[in-house]
Design brief:
It is a single chain. 22% of the residues lie in helices and 27% in strands. The chain has a domain at 7-26 and 86-171: Ku70, Chain: A, Domain 2 (Beta Barrel), CATH 2.40.290. It is α+β, with helices and mostly antiparallel strands and 281 residues long. Helix 3 packs parallel to helix 5 (246-255).
Length: 281
C-alpha cells in the first residue's frame, strides 16, 4: 500500500525550487493507546478545565495562553498577538549550507520524515539526492511550517531524500552538567571489556532482530480481556543493588553460555494484534 503524505513543501537551493511531499517514517497505529473511561459505566470521559481559585469549570472560549514570568504571575496573550510573532506560513525548506555528513552530531536529531517528489519535481529531486551522495554531504535548512521555524537536515536515503528535524543548540544540555566521579580504568579491565565487546559483536545492525517485549505482553493481556478471561498478576521482586567486583563480573560475562547471541525474530503485528470483537456475557 502506497504511503499517504502528511504535508507538502518546497526545497529551495540556489535558484532551484523542488516541490516535495512529506511522509511519516513510523506507524503511529503500532502504539498501544488507552483511553480514560468511567469505571462504573464504561463510558469514555471528557476533559474539562477547572479554575482552582473560583472553583468552576472554565469554557474553552474563556481560556487564553499565558507566560509565567514570575511565580504565579502571568502575562496573557490573545490569538492575534501570538500570530503576529509566528513564522509566516510558507511551508518551505530553505537550504542554507551543505556540510560533511559526519559533522552533525546525533545528539541534535529529533525526528525524521521521508521526502518524496511532488508533481514536476522528480528530476530535481533525483539530482539533489545524487549530488549529496556524490559529495558525502547533507543539507542544513530552515523549515517553516505551522507558524514555527525548525532547523532540519536533508540527506540522501535509498536513492531518495530524508529530512531529519534537528534540535537547536540552546535546546541541548551540556554533558558537563552530568555528575561524574574520577576513576581510573586498568589495562586488565580494559582488555577484558574489549574481549567482551568482540564476543558479542555483529557485522551490522538488524532492527528486525529486536521486538518490544512489553508491547507484546500488553497485547496478550488485552486479548485475554477481550475474550473475557481473568488476569492473574504475580508480584515481582525488586532488583537488589549490589556492589560487585568489576573484574569478576567481566570474567563471568565472558564465560556465560550464549553471550552475544542475537534475540529471536520479532513476531509480526498481524500475529500479535488483539481482536476487536467484544466478549459475550
Amino acid at each position: 500500500m502506497a504511503a499517504r503524505s502528511i504535508g507538502t513543501s518546497t526545497i529551495s537551493f540556489g535558484l532551484v525550487s523542488l516541490p516535495v511531499k512529506l511522509y511519516a517514517t513510523a506507524e503511529s497505529k503500532s502504539r498501544i493507546a488507552f483511553n480514560m473511561v468511567h469505571k462504573t459505566c464504561g463510558t469514555r470521559v471528557k476533559q474539562q478545565y477547572v479554575c482552582p481559585k473560583e472553583d468552576e469549570i472554565v469554557a474553552r472560549e474563556d481560556i487564553v495562553k499565558g507566560y509565567e514570568f514570575a511565580k504565579g504571575q502571568y502575562v496573557l496573550f490573545s490569538s492575534d498577538e501570538l500570530k503576529a510573532v509566528e513564522q509566516p506560513k510558507t511551508e518551505s525548506i530553505e537550504i542554507t549550507e551543505f556540510v560533511p555528513a559526519d559533522q552533525v552530531d546525533r545528539l541534535y536529531f529529533d525526528r525524521a520524515y521521508y521526502l518524496g517528489p511532488d508533481k514536476g519535481g522528480t528530476r530535481a529531486y533525483r539530482l539533489l539526492s545524487a549530488a549529496l551522495t556524490k559529495t558525502d554531504r547533507v543539507a542544513i535548512a530552515k523549515h517553516a511550517t505551522r507558524g514555527k521555524q525548525h532547523l532540519v537536515m536533508v540527506r540522501p536515503y535509498e536513492g531518495g531524500l530524508l529530512m531529519e528535524q534537528l534540535r537547536y543548540a540552546n535546546e541541548l544540555r551540556s554533558f558537563s552538567d552530568v555528575p561524574m566521579d574520577e576513576s581510573e580504568v586498568s589495562d586488565s579491565e580494559l582488555a577484558l571489556a574489549v574481549q567482551l565487546v568482540a564476543q558479542a559483536s555483529s557485522e551490522g545492525f538488524e532492527a528486525t532482530d529486536y521486538k518490544d517485549d512489553v508491547r507484546d505482553r500488553m497485547l496478550e493481556v488485552i486479548q485475554q480481556k477481550v475474550d473475557g478471561e481473568d488476569i492473574v498478576t504475580v508480584a515481582q521482586e525488586e532488583p537488589q543493588t549490589q556492589i560487585i567486583d568489576l573484574m569478576a563480573a567481566l570474567k563471568a560475562s565472558l564465560s556465560e553460555e550464549g553471550s552475544g547471541r542475537k534475540p529471536a525474530k520479532a513476531a509480526s503485528d498481524k500475529e500479535k494484534a488483539p481482536s476487536r470483537k467484544r466478549a459475550s456475557g
